[in-house]
């Protein structure tokens, strides 16, 4: 493994089951069912192999990871191996006794998502009426002695409410709030025309973010995840392909990032067939875009190639059908018009449409063929 | 030097975890969404912040362990920074 990077983090997507139906979910459109999920023993092996590879942090995500009754067993194994554990949750299904059992298993922290500052936002974006459960989950997390981190995905419908969203997180006792502008993969890409904000909306929100960050100081850490469609250069996605982290999907397929399942032209291996070390260091998919050798121009001759690594391979594929192209977000990309066109189209959509009209047009995250599927 | 700063008791924040990384041969500070690579002295200081020692006792211990004198300023500067970053709480 000479020169081979060691991953720091494992994103363990233990299930695609979720009580919410968020229109910007980064899970693939083809959601996996319970029958596809890895068994407890498989996950324990994945965790041990990940630790051997150099992973020091495990983020339990999904779907809603609390759906899995064996989460405590997995957390306990992480604790035994000295791995830091983080629960990424919608908060639905988090009871006081569940929080206690997770903490005694060794859980180190939790990240709770909200969709906005009030019940209407959860209803509109996630097709759920359980905003009350989120406030309760925040209290349960804090009372269990865990640091409360919060996350909100930002888009056209909730950006104007940014001040109120920050107020809610302060009131609930969050230590840290990630303001994650929507990244357009999975369900978010499907709903892009309705989610993309206007430039004016974003500029106003950046003003709110900066003012509140200065006001809050150490009380609550605010993070601004850039809306990359409006950036001149692409994001250095995951610190480069297969460099710092890996994702294991509910069925055991291993990806260099949480949305790489979308690259349907690539063949990703599963922990059911190969061990994790081989997948990380030897598999074709992980080797494909590691480093800078794979790049063509304009990336190859670009002075920024070690800064942004050509941007996001998944975005390149989603927009152009070829994962080896420069991320179209980049102003030097020959495909940059694809991003520009999306912005123009989004601005032509009716920004002032009322909730009911938007609701009818949004595609909610649901398993294919489910009763209320879109 | 403010006397009260030397009698304060620093403790690693609940959300933070120190560990030796045998794969990379380094000392790490693990936080909810972050991994911090520590240098040898940073790891030594944080390792003593267990809520049982005053800053003065941390300094004395480090001076013994490393067989050097006058670490007070270095330790105070590091702890001030660590506190601002939320790695350490002081009581």
UniProtKB/TrEMBL annotation, chain B:
Keyword Mitochondrion on entry: no
Gene3D superfamilies the UniProt entry points to: Coenzyme PQQ synthesis protein D (PqqD)
Keyword list, A-Z: PQQ biosynthesis
Pathway where this protein functions: Cofactor biosynthesis; pyrroloquinoline quinone biosynthesis
One matching Pfam family: PqqD
Keyword Iron-sulfur: no
Subunit text: Monomer. Interacts with PqqE.
Protein name: Pyrroloquinoline quinone biosynthesis peptide chaperone PqqD
Species of provenance: Streptomyces cellulosae
Gene: pqqD
